[in-house]
Each structure stands twice: as structure tokens, then as C-alpha cells.
Amino acid sequence: MRRALAAGGLLTLFSVSGCGSGAVEAPAPRPPAEVAARCRTLHDRLPQKVHGFARRATTPKSPLVTAWGSPAIVIRCGMPRPAALKPTSELVVVNGVSWLGVPVDRPVTFTAVGRLGYVEVTVPAAYQPPGDVLIELAGPIKAAIPASPDGSL
Question: What is the annotated signal peptide range for this record (predicted)?
Fold first, then answer.
């Protein structure tokens, strides 16, 4: 089931990193070469600022992982298919990108699905409304990671 979200939203998300000004620790995914190439294109298209926060270094350094702000908003491209993704999963559509939200306690991680590569975004719950981050990232994701031609999730 898909639900559209045009702007803003009541989404709750979390971060994979802690507070601080050093490099953000976020493990890099290991996708197939074709997906990794799309992810490098995405990395180049991502904005220098998200939700008003500048990019931060990540460790290990990888073009598949990008972070902004403190606590960090983190995007990881080339993730495996989410285990929670089922044909009956409820998706939120933000500016043409379908997202699967997976709760972990109160926070949520969103994964862009239905594309030729899974893109995971975590946003600290402190950033409200967190849906604004998904809005900012939808354009670069659509441009770099094409939708699955067969409509598969």
C-alpha cells in the first residue's frame, strides 16, 4: 500500500551516528558494481547542505555514504533489500520516491525502494519534521537511481 506525502510529514527517524564534530561512523554497504556506479553518481548529485546542515566526513570514507549535521543525517546507497520489505508493506511516497519506514524502538530508518538500488536514510528524531529531509533527497535519488522498470520493490 502506498501513501503519498507531498511535503513535510509526521515521520520519525533516527541517526546511525552520535553527536560531535568528527567523522561520522557509518559502515559502507558492498553492492554489486552496477549499483555502486549508480551510488557514486548519487553521491555527486547530493546537495552540500541538507536540512540546513553542511556535509560531514564519514568513516570509513566511501562514496556510498554521505552525512550532514550533528547529530548526523546519514544516507547509505547500495544497501541490501530490507528484510521488512513485503508485497503488503505500507510505503510513503515523497516527491516520486517510495520509502519503507522500519521502526527501531521509537525511531525509524527509511529505505528508498522500487529503484535499481536501495538507498537508506537515517535522520535524528530531533530534526522535525524529518520528512523534509526525504523531500530534499528525492530529486537526487530519482536522477541517479532509476525506478525498477518492472515495478518491483
Answer: 1-22
DSSP assignments along 138-149, one per residue:
HHHHHHHSPBPT
In a domain, 153, yes or no: no
Per-residue pLDDT of the chain (153 residues; tens, 9 = 90+): 544 443 333 232 333 434 556 999 999 999 999 999 999 999 999 999 999 999 999 999 999 999 999 999 999 999 999 999 999 998 999 999 999 988 744 457 899 999 999 999 998 888 877 789 999 999 999 999 999 999 899
Note down the domain range covering 41.
2-144
Residue 95 · residue 131 · CB < 8 Å: no
In angstroms, the CA 67 to CA 85 distance is: 24
User: Considering the entire predicted model, what is its pTM?
Assistant: 0.85
Number of separate domains in the chain = 1
129: cell is 519534521
Q: Is residue 40 part of a domain?
A: yes
**Grid cell digits, residue 57:** 566526513
